[in-house]
# Entry
Amino acid sequence: MSAAPRTPVVLLHALSLHASMWQAQVRALRERGHRVLAVDQRGFGTAPLALGEAPPPPSLDVVAEDLARTLDSQGVGRAVLAGSSMGGYAAMAFLRRFPDRVAGLALLSARATADDPAAAAQRLRFAELVLDPAHRPVIVEQVTPLLLGDTTRARRPELLARVLADARAADPAALAWAQRAIAARQDSTEVLRAARVPALVIAGEQDALVAAQESRRLAELLPQGRLLTLPQAGHLQPLEAPEEVTRALAGLLDEVDEVGRSVAPVGSGARAC
# Structure
């Protein structure tokens, strides 16, 4: 008989980038038989910032609701969510609002906690500056290289050029909206503690934005969480270490599929081959 269908996976991108950052993972996971949705979040890539006359107040809950509508439109009930940086915060917001729709979770370069006042103020200041044409080029050129690790910047100048190009091309209004939404995000500690699904935290050893202890704490909060640290990667592991990230996601998806097979009720139509 034919094999059971594999669990769908949703890939959520980092700030200033878009769904194409997951290109390597999309190709590889589809080859394994998974349905893969690499989603442009509100204001980035092909997704508009405003669905009406004006965008709603900045909130990751809005992004979570966008994702729920996307899944509904695609006929997807439950999926594994994999989110990088901003995408990780969007995944946590979705988990808070729609826990029964999350079959597994991969969080890359994200924190469980809300921003402290200093970090929130820094994000809000970025939002102000990126909207100012006089300051925007400077702040983009200063901040964007920090998304990549030292090794990547030294050995892969073409990747740095790509990330800079994406950041320069991003809609300033979307960047400001997203930073304000992230600055206002809720603490996800209890949400993660309640997430009894296979889970993976991926960290970059050279990540200048999320400290190693924060990634460890994130993995410890997840009842079925484990931590993978990539030694020569920074904040954008799907681009910096695509093969390692793909293998890790494939392993998580295999785990989710195995859990799904083991809990399939008698008479559900699922049978051992």
Summary: The CA atoms of residues 37 and 74 lie 9 Å apart.
